[in-house]
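Box S2. Input/output pair 1.
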Amino acid sequence: MGKVIGIVSGKGGVGKTIFSVNLASTLAKKGFSVLLIDTNVTSPNISFFVGSPIKRYTLTDVLSGECNINDSIYAYTKGNFSYMPSSLSINKLYKVSISKLKSIVDALKTQYDYVVLDGPANMDGEFLEVVRASDELAVIATPDIISVTDALRVLEFGRRHGRKIIGLIINKYEQKDYNLKVKDIELLAGDKLFGAIPRDENIKMSLVKRAPVCLLYPKTNSTFAFEQIACKIAGLPVPIKKKNLWDKICFWND
C-alpha cells in the first residue's frame, strides 16, 4: 500500500506546484514508483510544468464519471514518474464531484509507492477533499509573515482532521532584511521547520523548459534541498555536503 502525500498551502504564489513536481521527480530518482495528481481542479497547471498542456482524459473526467481512472494517467518520461492532470476547460467543471477524490486516490495508492497530491492554494472545498484523501500533509509557505501565518492555519486544520503532518517547508528562501528568519518562523510555528528551498533563478528557467529543476540543474542548491526533503519523507539517509553559505541555513541538518 502506497503513501498519499498532500502538498498544500494557505495562499497562492508560494511555489506549491513547483515543489510537487520536483518532489515527485526526486522520489522517482530514488527508485520509487510515483503518481503526481493535479487536484487543483478549478485552477490546474501541472500540465504546463511537465510540458503537456492538453490531454484527452484528466482527473476532471474521472470526477465527472466520463472515463476510467487509468485512462487519465500519463507517463512523464523525463522525470520517470506518472501524472494525472486536471482539465484546462471550464466547461467540464459543473459536472465535477470533488467528493469522489478520496475513493479515486484510495484505488490508486495500491499501485504506487507514493501518490503526490498538488492541492489548491486556499482552504476551500477542494482543499478539504485533498486533506481527506491524504495520509500526510506537507505545507508550503514563503518566508513572509502573511504566508507563514496562513500556513499555520493549514497545519492546524490538518491536525484537527487527524492527518500526519510532515511539516512546514519554506520555499523561495533567501536571507533578506524583509524576510522572516528561520528562528522567527520556528518561533511562530512552535516547531522546527521540515526544510527549505532556496530562491533559485534556475527554477524560472525550468518553467520555460517545462521540466523539473532537479533534472535540468542537478548541481544547484535548490536541487540539493529537494533531495534532502525527499529523503526525509522517504526515511532514507539525508545527504550532507561540504558547508557553504546555503548549508549554514539548512537548519534540518543541525
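Box S3. Input/output pair 2.
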Amino acid sequence: MSPRHFTRVFTYEVGEAPGAYVERVRTEAARRQLEETDDTVVTIAARCGFGTSETMRRNFIRRVGVSPDQYRKTFA
C-alpha cells in the first residue's frame, strides 16, 4: 500500500488524517497525565512522544487553548 493510499483509507475510516490523529492522541495522553500525576512537563512530553516540551507546549496551546502548566493549575 502506498503512503498516499494509506492516508486516504485512514482518513476515510477514522475521520481525520494520520498526523492529526497522532497529535490528538498524544495531546489526550498528556492531558490525562497532567491531571493525574505530578510528573514534570518535560517527562510527560517525552512519555507521550513529543520531541521536546516546547513541541508539546505549542501543540497543547493549539489544541486545548492553554499551556500545559495553566491546564494543570486549572484541572489537577
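Caption for Box S3: DSSP finds five helices and no strands in the chain. The helical segments are 3-14, 18-36, 41-47, 53-64, 68-75.
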